[in-house]
Design goal:
By secondary structure, the protein is an alpha/beta fold. Helices cover 32% and strands 14% of the residues. The protein folds into 2 domains: 133 residues, Ribosomal Protein L4, Chain: A; 51 residues, no CATH class. The radius of gyration is 27 Å and the shape is elongated.
């Protein structure tokens, strides 16, 4: 399939060919679901921790004598039924991350790129960089394509440090490299700006494997 390439001023320049296997394939909803769940699980810190009755720092004495009170027998004040006692089945530190099959992740990314094309939210822009790293320069370019500050994704051909620095103070803009895409950002992004070199790299990166 062919798509137009725009200048940083929003003017049409020429057309390039995108790989149908990457940008014009059938969308797999299941792979997208699993890819996003995997990303969210891998981000979880998992540091929540509660103390059991064996870990709380409290008295080992009985709250009252064994017999003669009419109450049920009680062992010690660290029991979960008492204020200040331990917690039953509370959370403990754990690792929520897991590995998603490579083929599923690749299918999810190709499906998301195809979905962006189908929903007409993908725009290919000529290669550019922000050598000064100033947010003002990048913002002036982005506003030529995004007028109402919609959630936007910018896909680069490589890890451009100055471009990322310029994007840090634009709250609605997320910068990604073509080989480190985020399923969550691609799905929820209202606009996807992609550098021309990144588009050509994605043709090869996802096309033949």
């Amino acid at each position: 399939m062919e798509t137009k390439v725009f200048s940083i001023k929003g003017e049409e320049l020429h057309a390039i060919t995108l790989n149908d296997e990457v940008f014009n394939r059938e969308v797999s909803d299941g792979s997208i679901y699993h890819a996003i769940n995997n990303e969210l699980a891998n981000r979880r810190v998992g540091t929540a921790c509660t103390k059991t009755r064996g870990e709380v720092n409290y008295s080992n004495s009985k709250p009252y004598k064994q017999k003669g009170t009419g109450n049920a027998r009680a062992g010690d004040k660290k029991s979960p039924i008492w204020v200040g006692g331990g917690t039953i089945f509370g959370p403990k530190p754990r690792d929520y991350s897991y590995t998603l099959p490579k083929k599923v992740k690749r299918l999810a990314m190709k499906s998301l790129l195809s979905l962006a094309v189908n929903e007409e939210k993908l725009v290919v822009v000529e290669d550019f960089t922000i050598e000064s790293g100033r947010t003002k320069e990048l913002a002036s370019i982005v506003q030529n394509f995004v007028t109402d500050k919609k959630r936007t994704v910018l896909i680069l051909k490589d890890d451009d440090v100055m471009m990322r620095r310029a994007a840090r103070n634009i709250p609605f803009l997320k910068v990604l490299s073509y080989n480190r895409l985020s399923a969550k950002e691609l799905l929820y992004g209202r606009k996807v700006l992609m550098l021309e070199s990144a588009a050509m790299n994605l043709n090869e990166f996802f096309g033949d494997k």
